[in-house]
Specification:
heterodimer; A: 335 residues; alpha+beta; Sulfite Oxidase, Chain A, domain 2; 5-stranded mixed sheet; 13 strands; globular; B: 199 residues; mainly alpha; 9 helices
Chain lengths: 335, 199
Amino acid sequence: MHARHSDNGHNHPLGSEITSAHAHQNRRQMMQHLATGVAGAALASWASREALAQSDKALARPGKLAPLAARPSTLAGANTMEKPTTYADASTYNNFYEFGTDKADPAKNAHTLKTQPWSVEIEGLVKKPGRWDIEDLLKLSAMEERIYRMRCVEGWSMVIPWIGYSLSELIKRVEPQGSAKFVEFVTLADPKTMPFVGSRVLEWPYVEGLRLDEAMHPLTLLTFGMYGEILPNQNGAPIRLNVPWKYGFKNAKSIVKIRFVEKQPGTAWVKSASHEYGFYSNVNPNVDHPRWSQATERRIGEDGLLSKKRKTLMFNGYEAQVGQLYAGMDLKKNY
Amino acid sequence: MWRHPAAKPLLALLLAWPACWLLWAAFHDQLGPNPAEALIRQSGDWALRALCVALAVTPLRVITGQVLLMRFRRMLGVNVFVYAALHMLSYAWLDMGLDLEDIARDIAKRPFILVGFLALLVLSALVATSFNKAVRWLGTQRWQALHRSVYAVAALAVLHFYWMRAGKNNQTEVLIYGAILATLLGWRVWHWWRKRPRA
């Protein structure tokens, strides 16, 4: 019962998330069943229903874009119980530097992005390289909805219901060669539709990368939609990445190339400021950014103006699922 | 017009306007998805703007010959402190939850915070000695020497802003404020050089 309260989900989200994943669509029903079985729990059930109503409201389809059907994920850790961020906040507070450096810019400017036709080139050390049309990628595996925490390196966070499937599904199809150790994600850099491509802020195209075992981890989500609909342009349409235990900038948006390579790829922020941003960029409250602490974060839309920031969790709360990927590694060195 | 009795109150209202708007907006959900960040950043922007305006008084007076502009210098100077203090308070409250130990540790740990904090400390000394009696207590020369440290505030403020933006190579605004403040200080150096007594 407790884990359903959005306000304290932060304190103990892990047990419930690890042991079983609940479909948010079923939450209201389950709650009602539970409530009717517990005598004298009227108040508790009312409070829970309030929390659920709020949560359901945040998860309701915004009705702005084409719907994208998905079943709730059953993967361990894939559905946080914390209250989702509203669609309005998640689609107007974005870092997508191709469309401007202010977080309000992408929502204003990304309407120029052309997401059709779209294809993703698979190249490098794979047995089956080739070009995949977005239509084929959409059909490659069953769509799942996953509610992930998203922690930005800047110290804010959101909770977003994404739609997609594990990147490993695609990787298995293209059969990496034994020499492939890393996966590089190259994103669109079209100066005609992206006004800030060419600015000196970063090197274009924006490139991100993962170790092959990180890319193969089932939580690494190849993402096509959010909130029951296809992705809005400003959130990285039509295809992006979500690696929930890493800082948000690792989630490459509007991907056009996935390259399998032997050596650790040079990624956008590492090339720009390697003393501030590392290749791994795992969420880690114990390793500060040179200019600010990473121990706490502000949850957009939820933490009130005057409330203290919440504590950031190791691996953004996904330690149980991904901790073993980094066993024996010095995470201070490999920030 | 500069002599009009309403000039000072009107100016005070004008200077207070951004602060009133920011505070109203912060508590009425008008600052976007991250109101705390918006409040911290915008109060910082206004502190820098206030500094540019305050440092423009003397050059404007000399260039235009409007001696009466000096009537407003103290108010414009105190205004810099007001916005810098609002900036610091927003950070201390919204980012650090007014936890003094956390704040002290943050200042010691992060050069860009330290630099901003130093700028505010200097500004506090200037505000504390901004009344007429302070000039008499200190003596004009000492008072002037102390208040020249506003140039250090300008340098610290630009450095603070530069460091804050350093990771993003996004220095356009930093360059604009830096150029304005450098021009205002450069004018003073040039003016002093021209007027220096010749042997």
